[in-house]
Design a protein that fits this description.
heterodimer, A: 74 residues, alpha+beta, 28% strand, B: 225 residues, alpha/beta, nine-stranded mixed beta sheet
Chain lengths: 74, 225
């Protein structure tokens, strides 16, 4: 099965990439953008999904600064 | 008495040779450099461990995230738990936070730029094996070279670090946005230290400065006691 993991900075954690993108959008004429957060997408092909959460906690995300969610997509 | 200082080498480490050189300079004080290969689960009986800078495993995923699981790190974790002196420099600091040997994490610099320059740092604590040869309040000019050097810890962890006097080194002019100007912290047992600046790059007057030797020579002070 195919699993999609989304990792992103926890709320309140400084996100310099998000801030840079937020600053760039109005320069292109896109107004009204209140927040931008840049995260990381990780796609896995696995036989079963019972260890995905452990994978996220131990390696794919750093729980000190990041939060994650995952879903089976195919 | 010879003090054997082990230097871990991961694929992508690039300051291991500088660290070997710095320890070599300390040879006249009894230090001996010992290379510790990432795939080996053997610390070869060393008295102290340096986790050097670089881009372990290409910094893929996050700096230090993959190096943390290298064979040699299991031994480093046991050594640290037994009170052995361990210092992580730059990428080594990132590896030690990922390994939970030190609290917090290193985020991207607030400037979004790789920072490479010499900065003034103030020694806050001398009761660690890696600052024992320094003076409290002493300023050292040390090179930094990093993209993810912005130290972060949540409010409770930060308050605890400050209360327990575990901020070892602070920037005089913060180059990366680190919370409370933190350039280095130590573990609860004080034997594990992580710093972003590179003392090994200023370990020889031929390199323009030998100020960094104080950090590495500190472990010899502790060993002699």
């Amino acid at each position: 099965m195919k699993v999609r993991v989304l990792v992103r900075p926890k709320p309140g954690i400084l996100d310099p990439q998000g801030e840079a993108v937020k600053g760039a959008l109005p320069a292109l004429g896109f107004t009204g953008v209140e927040t931008v957060h840049v995260g990381r997408l990780i796609e896995l092909e696995v036989e079963r999904d019972d260890e995905i959460d452990a994978m996220c906690r131990r390696l794919l995300a750093n729980p000190t600064t990041e939060e994650y969610e995952w879903e089976v997509v195919g | 008495m010879t003090v054997r200082i082990g230097i871990t080498v991961f694929p992508g480490s690039n300051c291991d040779r500088d660290a070997m050189h710095a320890v070599g300079v300390l040879g006249r004080m009894g230090a001996e450099a010992v290379e510790l290969w990432h795939a080996d689960a053997d610390l070869k009986g060393v008295d102290a461990v340096v986790v050097p800078g670089g881009f372990s495993y290409g910094d893929y995923l996050r700096p230090g995230a993959i190096a943390r699981f290298a064979n040699v790190m299991g031994e480093v974790e046991r050594f640290a738990a037994d009170g052995g002196p361990v210092v992580g420099i730059c990428n080594g600091f990132q590896v030690l936070t990922e390994a939970h040997l030190l609290p917090g994490a290193l985020l991207q610099n607030t400037s979004l730029r790789f920072v490479s320059k010499r900065v003034r740092c103030r020694v806050e604590r001398t009761d660690t094996p890696w600052t024992a040869a320094c003076g409290v309040g002493e300023e050292l000019v040390l090179p930094v070279a990093h993209n993810e050097g912005n130290y972060f810890a949540d409010a409770a962890t930060l308050a605890r670090l400050e209360d327990e006097g575990r901020v070892v080194l602070r920037y005089v002019d913060n180059p990366n946005g680190s919370v409370n100007d933190i350039a280095g912290v130590c573990s609860e047992g004080r034997n594990v230290v992580g710093i972003m600046p590179h003392p090994e790059r200023v370990s020889d007057d031929d390199l323009g400065s030998a100020e960094g030797l104080k950090i590495l020579a500190s472990v010899l002070v502790g060993a002699a006691v």
